[in-house]
Amino acid sequence: MVGRQHNEVLKSIRQYCEYFTAGIFPLSDFFLVSQYKESTSLELPCYLITRKGCEMVANKMTGEKGVLFTASVIPAMASSL
Fold first, then answer.
1. Residue 37 belongs to what H/E stretch?
2. Three-state DSSP class for residue 30
């Protein structure tokens, strides 16, 4: 959806988590570290993303992809209110 490789998105989120952990903002306001089992039962890391976290990811993207992603996320967030 965002036109980035999954591993690049995870890399960005990991970097954001480091910033939050070192700063004054609670990490849990944005991302929750989790894991999931893939088809071979291997447990892999993942992040549960809060509304603030989704906005963070969307606002860090630039250009056409950033605009289109933000435009698609806003209605979804509004409908969850």
1. strand 31-37
2. coil
Are 46 and 36 a contacting pair, CB within 8 Å? Answer: yes
How many domains are there within the chain? 1
Contact 58, 72 (CB under 8 A): no
Question: In one letter, which amino acid is 33?
Answer: V
Residue-range definition of the domain harbouring residue 75: 6-79
Residue 1 lies inside a defined structural domain of this protein: no
11-18: long-range pairs with CB below 8 Å, 24+: 12/57, 12/60, 13/47, 13/49, 13/53, 13/57, 16/53, 16/56, 17/47
* Cα gap 30→47, rounded to integer Å: 10
Per-residue pLDDT of 46-77, as tens digits, reads 999 998 888 888 777 767 776 777 777 767 66
Q: What is the pTM (predicted TM-score) of this model?
A: 0.70
